[in-house]
Amino acid sequence: MKTWVKKNCCSEVSFAWLLKMALSLVCPALILLFRPLGMNFAQSATSAGILLVIIWWTTNLMKKVPASLFLLLWFCLFSGAPAKTIFTFPTGETFIMLVITYLFSQAISNCGLIDRVLLPLLLRFVRTPVSCILAVIVSFCLTMYVIPQPLARLVLVSVVFDSFFKRTTVPAAARQVLMYMVFVFYAIVNIACKDADLIMNYVAVNSSGVEITNGAWTRAMAVPTIGYAAVVMLLMLFLFRRELRGVSIRLAPDVESAPSGFSREELPPVIVILATVLLWMTSGLWGKNIVLFGYITANTLVTVVSTLIPFAMKTLGTKDFSAIDIVTLIFLSAAFAIGGVMKACGAADVVFGQFRSIFPEHFSVLYLMLIILVGMLLHMVLGSNTTTLSVIVPGLVLLCGNVVSPEVLVYASIISVAFHPILPLCGADGRREQRLLSEQLCYAARHSGHALYFPRRRIRLSALVVSDRTNLKKRQPGSDTHADIEKKHSI
Fold first, then answer.
1. pLDDT single digits (tens) 132-178
2. What are the tens digits of pLDDT across the range 418-443?
3. Is 0.85 topped by the overall pTM?
């Protein structure tokens, strides 16, 4: 416990840190003192608190746990918003679903389901870089409901592909490029369905104040997702043509075949997992009218029961509770609250209303591109998908809600954040570029043993500016640790 608190709650205090902390207080203090734009006390206090914590999040001056708890406490004391609005995430179904899916994903990892199913298929059917990319996309689509927790899904799938490449004759340079594509296409597939990312997509929907079903999301985002995947695939094959030219993926000599099948002890939890997935996919047929406590739906109830069974089967144990990411849950509690609190106290009307004049009166392609541009600019400042969406979605709903439906604004915001890695980035510094990658990608890169490095050289292709070369290399002894990277590139 002491180690966890020291790692996630304590900052390294020095004169430079104290100076930066003092500077971070200047703008929020001025907002609180002078109440610009005709704000009342609650509105100025809410705006100042949000600005201060966003500064802490983006600069990592204060760790996410104390910063997020500070923001929640600040809202309780000064915003005047009801407790239900402030604590909408921890008292909602998404919170329960996330906690349970952390454990459910750990059960899948413990029983080796993904390894035993995916690895033999990859060794049998993947022969070229193009088929490998397609296999990456198919793998994430197939595991979307098997592993509902997005970060756990990325870690498990990336480990499978890393094991796959080690069993083949793929050269080291091509292997690293293909591993990078695993991370990139994870982010692309996650925008295809609402349930593909229980964090980013749910933050966007919750911040909009409207209900969007998984089916409606999938229909609306099908064309953007397919188009994005096609563009990125062509760009990757072009940019890394030297590494991938002539690469043939074959099983290396003297390498044992991948394990397949399940023992008698492993089979029961696998059956439970497959039954759970089947119930999830058919819940629309049998679970429409099943609601517990007014908000817990059939899918969540199925997940709770399916997670308790592996404990009885000894597939999960008390040590597996460490799989629950408490830091992310606390961070999301604060991020989810921002939009609702700003609306409740009226700060959203005052702050975002100042930008109403920059949008045309009627909807057009230019109007849509302006929405996406605003999202990208804010993403370049904040660096985090969830923080950006929690701020921009309620703002856009307020500014553009009379012209564009909230659903379209959610989709446009997701597109502006998710498409950002292949568009012009801020500055030529490699660290800045790495910071703009989604927090999910960076999380999985660290946990799978890879770090991402971007040199300054680029190539211009049509209207896109992308990295000319991306060097992916294994973390070596003495290089940045997990904590070091978080210190440099906080979400």
1. 999 999 999 988 877 777 877 888 888 889 888 888 888 888 888 89
2. 876 655 443 333 333 334 344 444 44
3. no
Given the structure tokens 């970060």, which residue do they identify? 151
- Six token digits for residue 199: 């964090």
